[in-house]
Write a structure and sequence with these properties.
60s Ribosomal Protein L30, Chain: A; 314 residues; five-stranded mixed beta sheet; alpha+beta; 46% helix; rod-shaped
Length: 314
Amino acid sequence: MSAADRTAARPIIVKRIKKVAGGGHGSSAWKIAYADFVTAMMAFFLLMWLLGSTTQGDLEGIADYFRTPLKVALAGGSGSGDSSSVIKGGGTELTRTTGVERRGDIESDRRKINLQALRAELRKEERRRLAKLKVQIEEMITLNPRLAELRSQIKLDLVPDGLRIQIVDEQNRPMFDIGSAAVKDYMRELLREIARLLNGVENRVSLSGHTDSAPYGSGQRGYSNWELSADRANASRRELVAGGLTESKVASVAGLGERVMYDPDNPRSPMNRRIAIIVLHSEAEERLYQNSMVEASDSGELAAAVGAPPQATE
């Protein structure tokens, strides 16, 4: 048999390698499945966090958008939820929906609340200081034998504007010479002692002079109760300053004539002739300053008038 015949008669063997996917620790299929699971969990927790941190108005806006997604698109323009919604055009007017507030508004409200609380605390502190001043003045009068004789003529009370100190006339013990602004000696001593105590508080003071209804001899065109009450208020101011009161602590000086009676049932009672000193609360002082600014703006200068003078006065 020739070589060619032997080659032709030899069987042809084909070897096929069967590939089988590896299992056990060598497989990576589980890693892909785990990665998909972790991704899904992250997406779930992100969604829950967004739902928890979104205001009620935003949620309603988003829900409304998905309920009628073509409503805004067909109407055209920006949606009413643009102010705070993550979906452009989503939802109803969110600024009118409960639970939606801008951060600046919240911070502004907090500042207002803090400022109000601070002012309330300052008012309480001022009331304590003025109540303490009232007690000090009463003690000062009690301990000074000369001033103790004037106890019935000194009226102390707390009023909305602050601590009011009124020094009134008695029939046989006037504070000033009749018809003039000359200060009696005991009145001078009392004012200077009060000045020493007024410097112990930061509050400013206002002074007003008052008369009774007895007509003054010169009548309306001459020297009247208006001028007399103003002169007596200024004389009292000078005595307070002489007693040590800082000039800048005087906020206002006014003469009110017979317009504000202490005893309105007895217009000619000597108690209506008085000097009123008010230790002002800070709010009362602020109102006084604002009123002065309004008057200055209207007239070009600070006005001291309080009304037309009466027809006839003391």
